[in-house]
Amino acid sequence: KVFEDSQAASRAVAKEIAKLIKVKQSQKQPCVLGLATGSSPKGLYSELVRLHQEEDLSFKNVVTFNLDEYYPMQPDSVNSYVRFMKTLLFDQIDILPENCHIPDGTLEKAEIADYCSRYESKIESLGGIDLQILGIGGNGHIGFNESGSLQNSKTRLVALDHITRVAASKDFAGLSNTPKTAITLGVKKIMEAKRVILLAWGEAKSTIIRTSVEGQVTNQVPASFLQEHNNATFVLDKGAASKL
Ligand code: GLP
């Protein structure tokens, strides 16, 4: 779906999420959202905050699972995804803190595998992800599922690609301070989400968008797996769609 600009696109996605939250509220069910970080969902989060503040949208029945977190990472660090989510969304809406899940960047290495399988079990116990928001990395990564991630990959500790670290290094004041690893939700849980919306803005993303949407389905470009999802939409502005 191509929109005039990212603001119009973000508004439309926020509207869809609001509708889903309300349907789930009327059914007295939790609404399970998979959330992403990065610059792409920022407009969506500010629109959701606006719907809460101006139109009384309540998030009391919403349970969220973020895709990823750098490892190691302290939650109060400026670059943590915990900080990102609290500042841009959680602290500005009425979601219950215990309903917000973000992979824990403070674990001992030996604890990670167990932690990741519990993260997935929690998602399963709620009936899976109702709606998953994704951004896309320049190499086609989703979450931190880098090139080479398998379609059935689990939630796990991963090594970040050099290109991903270079992109992140501006936030970390240089490559040497940029984490080399992260914990990411696996491709399998993303593919199991009932609905997937991938957001991409600007011409800089146009080549990887074309490769993901029109190219071969390959683990070299994890976003291409979404071609095989039965309810996935790439929500784009004109720039990101310009090579389709
Ligand atoms: C990071 C995140 C991804 C995100 C990507 C793109 O790698 N872990 O989830 O999709 O950045 O970021 P942006 O939206 O800023 O282009």
Automatic annotation (TrEMBL):
Domain Glucosamine/galactosamine-6-phosphate isomerase: 5-233
Domain of life from the UniProt record: Bacteria
Protein name (Swiss-Prot/TrEMBL): Glucosamine-6-phosphate deaminase
Species this protein is from: Gelidibacter salicanalis
Lineage start: Bacteria, Pseudomonadati, Bacteroidota, Flavobacteriia, Flavobacteriales
